[in-house]
Design brief:
Elements: H1 2-5, H2 10-26, E1 35-39, H3 42-50, H4 53-56, E2 61-65, H5 76-86, E3 91-95, H6 109-114, E4 119-121, H7 125-134, E5 139-146, H8 151-164, E6 169-175, H9 179-187, E7 195-198, H10 200-206, H11 212-218, E8 222-224, H12 229-245, E9 250-252, H13 264-273, E10 274-276, E11 279-282, E12 286-289, E13 293-295, H14 304-308, H15 327-331, H16 363-370, H17 373-379
Parallel strand pairs: 1-2, 1-7, 3-4, 3-5, 5-6, 7-8, 8-9
Antiparallel strand pairs: 10-13, 11-12
Helix pairs in contact: 2-12, 3-16, 8-13
Length: 380
């Protein structure tokens, strides 16, 4: 634990907090006129609340929670399509556990499992491929979900399936990419963002240069950050220093893990298996150009959308959000979770209306788990 404790040292944290306060004062940040810093990754949102960083930093710093949870940004229509596949005869549908309770318009995967569908949780797409080998008379479908962090593992599994000729295995591909929704937010005239804390795990795969457009085209600083308290505090300080100095750059606070140009083996596997979709629907953001990945024709045999004639393969319509659910506004940073009229009332971890309350990286789940009095007051 010694290595981790270095990034949780209270004395060091006080020093960084003091520096944040000084720079915030230099640039005139106040509670009424705050510096709005968006953390893109849901893991960062949970770390901020777990360690109370939002309350420790200078009052002129406002954390804005971005669309950084891949489970949360999945539209309800895609959950419905998962359920439709899973309920077909002869199908074993496999998924990571945090997608089991995400609500669709009719039911979640967990509810579909309770109704008799053969839905199984796996820890890796390779587990699903092994399941297909052991059940040659069944169709095994893996729910491919996530940002660039999980995309390589699915790509490598598809490569293995083709090498081994496992024809009863396929992937329902919902992999998405981080840069396009950031651009969509920056293009929104109603959004005011002063800087970004960039995602560490995603950047471990893609490197830091896919974010160059944020600084170059929009003049906003972005700092790729780690997940410990001092990582995040240092990253906030680095963003503030850029604002004070009139700079806009991509900086890498998480250099101990994130290489400048990413992971070449992962990038090569992704390029081999996937191509960019013309557009993909994001919950709360709608269709965003070039923001999702689809399986290339060379791997069409293992594409569940094509195999089952579903989703973008045949045309699809968006599904309306439940009345009063403000997941879209929360994910785009327009409101805090506690401002949603359903938070803690119609929407709790046991009666979730949206994925943000049940996902392990959801902003509403972070407020519910770590928000203390703020969450309790909102629920009342």
């Amino acid at each position: 634990m010694r290595y981790v404790e270095e990034f949780r040292d209270p004395k060091a944290a006080k020093g960084v907090l003091g520096a944040i306060a000084r720079v915030a004062g230099d640039i005139g940040a106040t509670a009424q006129d705050s510096v709005r810093i968006m953390e893109i990754c849901g893991g960062h949102t949970h770390a901020i609340f777990r360690y109370g960083l939002d309350r420790l930093v200078h009052e002129g710093i406002d954390f804005i929670h971005g669309p950084g949870c891949p489970v949360c940004v999945l539209p309800m229509s895609r959950v419905d399509e998962c359920v439709e596949i899973a309920q077909r005869p002869g199908v074993i549908f496999t998924t990571f556990g945090d997608a089991m309770r995400v609500p669709g318009s009719q039911k979640s995967l967990g509810q579909a499992k309770a109704d008799g569908a053969d839905i199984r949780m796996v820890y890796s797409p390779l587990d699903a491929l092994d399941l297909a080998r052991r059940n040659p008379a069944r169709e095994v479908v893996f729910f491919g979900l996530g940002f660039e962090t999980t995309t390589p593992s699915t790509a490598l599994t598809l490569q293995q399936a083709r090498r081994d000729g496992v024809g009863n295995f396929s992937v329902f591909c919902n992999h998405i990419t981080v840069p396009p929704p950031i651009k969509a937010l920056l293009d929104d005239p109603h959004m005011r963002l002063d800087g970004f804390v960039g995602p560490g795990h995603v950047s471990m795969v893609i490197g830091i240069h896919p974010y160059d457009f944020i600084a170059r085209d929009y003049g906003k600083p972005i700092v790729v950050a780690g997940f410990e308290p001092l990582d995040l505090l240092q990253s906030v300080l680095m963003v503030l220093n850029q604002i004070r100095d009139g700079r806009a750059q991509v900086e890498n606070q998480y250099a101990r893990v994130v290489p400048e140009h990413g992971n070449p083996l992962s990038l090569a596997a992704m390029a081999d298996v996937y191509e960019v979709r013309p557009s993909f629907e994001w919950r709360g953001l709608g269709e965003i150009d070039a923001s999702g990945l689809r399986i290339r024709d060379a791997y069409r045999t293992w594409d569940a959308e094509e195999k089952f004639g579903i989703g973008y393969a045949v045309g699809r319509a968006p599904v309306r959000e439940p009345d009063g659910c403000e997941c879209g506004a929360v994910m785009t940073g327009r409101i805090k979770p506690t401002a949603c009229p359903q938070f803690g009332r119609g929407c709790t971890p046991d009666t979730a209306l949206g994925a943000l309350m049940v996902s392990s990286e959801g902003a509403c789940a972070a407020y519910w788990t770590y928000g203390g009095a703020r969450a309790t007051e909102a629920a009342q």
